[in-house]
Write a structure and sequence with these properties.
It is a single chain. The chain is an alpha/beta fold. α13 links the parallel β21 and β22. α4 (116-129) packs across α10 (293-308) and α16 (435-445) runs parallel beside α17. The protein is globular.
Length: 484
């Protein structure tokens, strides 16, 4: 148990009614999970408002309520604390509950539309190979040293984040590499964390279903850097037109990386093949197993971060030569029929373009590219037709299929994906709703040395449809067909 006074330390309390010296068992923002002597904090969410469930929380045993608006009927045995912003307050009390773990570990946040997961994965590999014990908070998985924990969100809620960080501190991890989503910034899940570094990968149109405008999306990313302290450093991709905007208002020490511009850290792609790339950083040439210019950016961002934390370039580059791609991020397989199969997570038009450009540049003119992809339901509809256009631009055949339709009708998703296509592009399209059948068809169409891109789901092991998550794994489907 923890005292209420310790829990609300540094919270800007507007009004406190009731007994102030209490022992709290746990913090809850879901009234259904409240138990005796818990603190319930009423969060205003996207689809519901926690203030509507204050009485339910009290009925379940909550002894303290934190809210922005006091309920009409107050109960004498309950303490009511009014604050201006319960989302920000949740971040503070979550940190206090676990004794401010982000101050006891080097916390590195990576944000951007594409590349977050890969950069986190690469940093984990580099620092581990250089002798550090590290933690990871990412889309694919959370890690505490050698322990792997399933991940449910790109950036978890404040209680989960601080719980994970606390475990990392207990296990003597020196660093934590964490994906920072735009949703997490806006929802203030990270507002009370002490970051030692921030890394920006790139930004393209995405999540407009949530942010509504591209400017709001940019502002959310920028806010992460604006909140960094002067003790931290910030690294930005200078080749991205919004890269320098990210660092405009930060107090952190500023650094840039690029492949095309003058910057603090530069990289050059010398050779690019299906089995890896030859890169040059600081006049040192070395081979990596990752593929594509977009991965050169991810590698350079990781190199810059390690360098700024004091790891010698020799150690970093030795580690880079041993890197493995993150699961479902441009993973390359080869079938018995000598067909190249690429599994990727690309789910924006920019990511689709980057992946297909890379495949096109590596491939010969005789190699056909067959792309299998879908678009997620209940998400940004504006990118659907753009993704299909990119797929048609670089592919010989495009198989449109399901990708987590969620609560949206697949017919509507497909209609959006095919909107505005010209006859030449329509001729390339096959619509096969069943994703397993779509992948099987791609294998049947592919000839020797052709390339199949299976995109959109990457590491995911499920298909989300009508509120039900059905087991489905693109990689398993690849293995089922790769022997044919």
């Amino acid at each position: 148990m923890i005292s209420l006074s310790k829990l609300i330390k540094k919270v800007n309390v507007v009004l406190c009614l009731g007994q102030q010296e209490r022992l709290i068992t746990n913090i809850c923002f879901d009234s259904r999970k409240v138990k005796t002597n818990d603190l319930f904090i009423a969060i205003k969410g996207v689809s519901s408002n926690g203030h509507d469930f204050i009485q339910q929380a009290i009925d379940h045993g909550a002894s303290v309520i934190i809210c922005e608006n006091q309920p009409d009927n107050l109960i004498n045995s309950v303490t009511y604390i009014t604050v201006k912003d319960t989302s920000h307050t949740l971040s503070i009390i979550s940190s206090n509950l676990y004794d401010n773990p982000s101050s006891k570990i080097k916390l590195v946040g990576i944000t951007g539309t594409n590349g977050k997961t890969t950069i986190v994965n690469l940093l984990c590999q580099i620092f581990t190979r250089c002798g550090f014990k590290v933690g990871v908070i990412s889309t694919i998985e959370n890690k505490i040293g050698d322990l792997t924990i399933d991940s449910t969100h790109t950036t978890p809620n404040p209680l989960q984040i601080n719980n994970l960080l606390s475990q990392m501190v207990t296990e003597q991890c020196s660093f934590c590499f964490m994906e920072v989503s735009s949703h997490a910034v806006v929802q203030k899940r990270i507002s009370f964390l002490e970051f030692d570094a921030g890394v920006f990968s790139n930004i393209t149109h995405d999540h407009l279903d949530y942010h509504l405008t591209f400017k709001n999306y940019i502002d959310a990313k920028q806010q992460f850097f604006s909140n960094l302290s002067s003790k931290a450093f910030a690294i930005s991709n200078k080749d991205d037109k919004n890269g320098l905007i990210m660092l405009q208002n930060t107090n952190a020490k500023k650094f840039s990386y690029s492949l095309k511009s003058n910057s603090d850290f530069k990289c050059r792609v010398i050779e690019n093949h299906f089995d890896g790339m030859l890169l040059e950083i600081d006049s040192i040439q070395f081979w990596v197993k990752l593929i594509g210019q977009f991965n050169a950016y991810n590698i350079l961002a990781s190199f810059a971060t390690a360098h700024l934390f004091g790891i010698t370039d020799d150690k970093i580059i030795t580690s880079l030569t041993l890197l493995r791609p993150a699961e479902g991020r441009f993973e390359v397989f080869k079938s018995q029929k000598e067909v190249f199969v690429i599994l990727d997570y690309a789910h924006t038009d920019d990511a689709m373009s980057n992946v297909l450009k890379t495949i096109k540049n590596i491939s010969s003119k005789s190699q056909s590219i067959i792309t299998v992809f879908g678009c997620g339901g209940d998400r940004d509809r504006s990118k659907r037709a753009k993704m299909t256009m990119q797929a048609c631009l670089y592919s010989s055949k495009v198989i449109v299929t399901k990708d987590n339709p969620r609560n949206e009708k697949q017919e509507q998703i497909v209609s959006d994906m095919l909107e505005g296509l010209e006859e030449r592009e329509n001729e390339k399209i096959l619509v096969i709703d069943d994703r397993s059948a779509a992948i099987k068809t791609a294998f049947a169409l592919a000839k020797k040395n052709d390339v199949i891109l299976i995109s959109g789901k990457g590491h995911e092991k499920y298909q989300d449809e009508n509120g039900v998550k059905i087991l489905f794994d693109d990689k398993e489907e690849i293995f089922n067909n790769i022997k044919n």
